[in-house]
What does this fold into?
Amino acid sequence: MSPRRYDESDVRSRPNPRGSRPRTKQRPGHEDAVEALVTGVDRGRYHLLVGPGGDDERVVLAMKARELGRERVVCGDRVDVVGDTSGATGSLARIVRIGERSTVLRRTADDTDPVERVIVANAGQLVIVTALADPEPRTRMIDRCVVAAYDAGMDALLCLTKADLADPAPLVALYEPIGVDVVVTSRSRGDATIAAGAVGEAEERWDGLDDVRARLAGRTSVLVGHSGVGKSTLVNALVPDARRATGSVNDVTGRGRHTSSSAVALRLPERAGWVIDTPGVRSFGLAHVQPDSLLGAFADLASVATERCPRGCSHAADAPDCALDEWVAEAEGPEREQREVRVDSMRRLLAARTASDQA
It folds into this structure.
């Protein structure tokens, strides 16, 4: 029996599941890309403002290009986009580049979580919104936010709300000496208005709102605070068209409920600046902050430690010859109590970060 002769019909090539295009390391230059500002993120879709500040400014919906991989795009980012950037209904552009970030605000779930989360980018000021009552102020939460702002290279502004319920003086005295700017606001209802023979809604009155506007003017500021402090209410007063959902405080737990689900950038009236509203938080982990830089967020303690502490001092509660203990003992009355609170807060943060490193 003669052997069979094969021809080309007997050869079957296996189809390439990845397509027939040759693989290359060269990436497209996207020279036609246009600049945009990320104003919001919603389930894999990005709300952009193309040409911010220009005459042809428009809102565009976009997705992230595959070539960016796992690199995260956050609110406040400056990005380059290609594709359909007309902003027409149903159009979808593509983010191909993320611009260099001037600042990055980060936090972790807790002090032991190694995964850091970028909250916003390119904001120059962190506004820590805290209620003076209902719910009660949490000074250690404020301290953590100040540390995060310091680590990100941002200015810190403490905004105290509900001043009609409690005296702001103790908190003002606690933070102004360490370089944290403080503004105080309160909200009340005036007398009901009478129009066309009917009783209308009472007019809302704000005290201190002009001070807040003055400190936000010309800047990009991110607002943070735990739930129930009045952050969304403040945003609605600053940006009347924002319509951010507001909530109440639970009478049993003393905590507010989350009303904001994602960060969103809002432009102040007359293009006076930007505010980025963020979801309410109940914790602000600092696992991403190096322990050596924690002391730098407490300017009053840092000066004492630099001048008077022995070399190699850890500044912890059990550190021998730590000058911070002597500094506390030198004061009397209310001033001594304030110093004790400051040192205790710094040492708790330091202990938490040290423990997370050893875990």
